[in-house]
Specification:
The complex is a heterodimer of chains A (342) and B (259). Chain A has 8 helices and 19 strands. With 342 residues, chain A is an alpha+beta fold. Chain A folds into 2 domains: 223 residues, Rossmann fold; 106 residues, Nucleic acid-binding proteins (OB fold (Dihydrolipoamide Acetyltransferase, E2P)). Chain B has one domain: MetI-like (MetI-like fold, Orthogonal Bundle), CATH 1.10.3720. Classes of the chains: A alpha+beta (342), B mainly alpha (259). Bound molecules: adenosine-5'-triphosphate and magnesium ion.
């Protein structure tokens, strides 16, 4: 827990009945950051969000927000907003009343309320639909109402559960820009959940990669993309050739293999993207067993003494034929250094 | 072709069977004669007017109205929270609760009436009007739970969580976002309950006392001493009232969605 941490989750364990969904989670977020929770379905992203919002009581651990322990604070007093994946708009209320809902509970005086609702709707670009019911809006418009409804409450922290997943590609891009703009203008601390690597990379200041109820890695998009530290993250961001390291050597199916360059430090594993594999020269030899054209590049699958290797070569270079034997190398200098490979 | 004729034939018979008695009652009600008969002897409205002059009809109509309104309201007061609990919390005894609540639909009214009389009214000396009220509430409850449950099922539960995160309490969320969205279901349940209670015979039969009779029971009783067409006139009036209620409900609520 660092000094400037705004939200921190300390040894948070969350369970449904007896089945643990999130295990011993530690996370600390700075004020004004835009954080992405990235991970496969069922890894506990929504569960963590629900716990932060106060809709779920942790089995153990604490949650601190803005200097106060909110673990036992009721959901309606936390000042945490949540935009549901399903929008959860109130079907019987107009767009205006949906956005005004929380402000009315604050007993805001009428003129002020109207002004704030209008500001909120303007922020998401929905001023002309105030009198419509949610059912009369498109999915993207509903989502924006949901966003406005949370924004006008001026929460300390805004959580968004897959805010873009139900939108088509164009709207998704639009909302993405929208979210970034809102975040820039308001300085609001936000956490959003996504399945989509590209979305996390392009939006977030920090990405929290989760898997099976555990955090795999926390880092900037560059960290995650270029310097994954676990097998799961490496695989997730496209490092297809992953090896454990034992005694400074690669552990392969056929035993230990020594690389050309020495392996510095004591990593648990090394991983290479297909494009990092050097083809046509090197100490290893493999047989091409598959190839496919991928636009600017060509992808090859090799069978080698190291096991299967995925390689990617610029399409303008030499073309290899299936059955052909090729030399290749795995340059240590370019490899991602993994701390955890099991 | 024959199959088609046959199906039209059957349809006509069914309709005749359903509507026939009603037409006969209306015809008998408009009779100018002295006794209940079909075909009627002459046409007049004298028996329709007579209905409003009969003291006991006025009293039992009042009682039936009160029972139907307050019994149904009481059933809703119990039924809405029960439906909500069944729908929202995975109660360990949810199924049992549902079964218990639906029991009065399945158990014949005669038995319910007899049981209430034998084990409630007689031993505890419960006031007969109170017993009727309890009985009608119990009879309407299953309909209330079923209809309200159906409309709760169509309502996502996350809107309540959204309301809570916007500052509402759990209870506040129920009144602010659940209740307004199941209003149609509740109104439908009320109408269904009202009609069920108003037309109820077997249970009320056991729970009648001196001067305390529901309208249907009073009509049977009236027939035993006087055989004039006023009963037919009353029956026709009641039928029109029921039709009007259901028609209005269908028109404004899409009543048939709920039942
Ligand atoms: N209401 C519930 N009761 C029991 N188990 C649940 C419940 N909700 C979620 N789980 C379980 O908890 C785990 C984490 O679920 P969660 O919804 O947090 O996943 P997620 O990361 O949000 O997945 P997705 O990307 O599919 O939304 C899953 O194994 C899931 O089966
Ligand atoms: Mg989820």
């Amino acid at each position: 827990m660092s000094e400037d941490s705004f939200l921190s989750l300390n040894a948070l364990t969350l369970a449904y009945g007896k089945s643990v969904a999130v295990d011993n989670l530690n996370l600390s977020i700075k004020k004004g950051e835009l954080i992405a929770f990235l991970g496969p379905s069922g890894c506990g992203k929504s569960t963590t969000m629900r716990a932060i919002a106060g809709l779920m009581r942790p089995m153990s651990g604490t949650i601190t927000l803005d200097g106060t322990d909110i673990t036992r604070v009721a959901a309606n007093r936390r000042q945490v907003g949540l935009v549901f994946q399903s929008y959860a708009l109130f079907p019987h209320l107009s767009v205006f009343e949906n956005v005004a809902f929380g402000l009315r509970l604050k007993r805001l005086e009428a003129g002020k309320l109207k002004q704030q609702v209008e500001e909120g709707l303007a922020t998401v670009g929905l001023t002309e639909f105030v009198d419509r019911k949610p059912a009369e809006l498109s999915g993207g418009q509903q989502q924006r109402v949901a966003l406005a409804r949370s924004l006008v409450m001026n929460p300390k922290l805004l959580l968004l559960d897959e805010p873009l997943s139900n939108l088509d590609a164009r709207l998704r891009l639009e909302m993405r820009t929208e979210l970034q703009r809102v975040q820039r203008e308001t300085g609001l601390t936000m956490i959003f959940v996504t399945h989509d690597q590209g979305e996390a990379m392009s939006l977030a200041d920090q990405i929290v990669v989760m898997n099976g109820g555990l955090i795999e890695q926390i880092g900037t998009p560059e960290d995650i993309y270029n310097r994954p530290t676990t097998r799961f993250v490496a695989d997730f961001v496209g490092f297809e050739n992953i090896f454990a390291v034992k005694n400074g050597q690669l552990a392969t199916e056929q035993g230990l293999a020594t690389l050309g360059d020495p392996i510095e430090g004591h990593p648990s594993g090394l991983a290479w993207r297909p494009g990092m594999v050097k083809m046509g020269e090197g100490q290893f030899e493999g047989e091409i067993i598959g190839s496919s054209f991928a636009g600017g590049t060509r992808e090859y699958l090799l069978r080698s003494e190291l096991g299967p290797i995925n390689a990617e070569v610029d399409a303008t270079q030499t073309i290899y034929q299936p059955g052909q034997r090729v030399n290749f190398d795995l340059p240590v200098a370019r490899a991602a250094i993994l701390q955890q490979v099991d | 072709m024959t199959a088609r004729l046959l199906s039209y034939g059957v349809l006509t018979l069914v309709l005749l069977f359903l509507i026939g008695p009603f037409l006969i009652i209306v015809a008998a009600a408009l009779s100018a004669g002295e006794s209940l008969a079909f075909p009627p002897q002459g046409l007049s409205l004298r028996w329709v007017f007579k209905v409003f002059e009969i003291e006991s009809f006025r009293e039992s109509f009042g009682l039936s109205m009160a029972l139907a309104i307050f019994g149904t309201l009481a059933a809703l007061l119990l039924g809405v929270p029960i439906s909500y609990a069944i729908a929202r919390y995975r109660l360990p005894f949810g199924e049992t609760l549902r079964t218990i609540v639906s029991a009065p639909i399945i158990v014949p009214g005669i038995i319910v009436g007899l049981a209430l009389l034998r084990y409630l009214v007689i031993p505890l000396d419960v006031d007969i009007v109170l017993a009727l009220f309890i009985a009608h509430t119990a009879l309407v409850l299953p309909y209330a739970v079923r209809v309200v449950s159906a409309s709760l099922e169509n309502l996502r539960s996350d809107i309540e969580e959204a309301a809570v995160l916007l500052g509402s309490s759990r209870v506040g969320a129920f009144f602010r976002v659940v209740l307004p969205n199941i209003r149609g279901g509740i109104l439908a349940a009320f109408i269904l309950g009202f009609v069920t209670s108003f037309n109820q015979v077997p249970v009320s039969l056991f729970l009648s006392g001196p001067g305390v009779r529901t309208l249907p029971i009073d009509m049977i009783w009236y027939l035993e001493i006087t055989y004039d067409p006023s009963v037919a006139a009353l029956a026709a009036l009641l039928a029109f009232m029921s039709i009007a209620i259901v028609f209005i409900a269908e028109r404004f609520l899409g009543f048939s969605r709920y039942v």
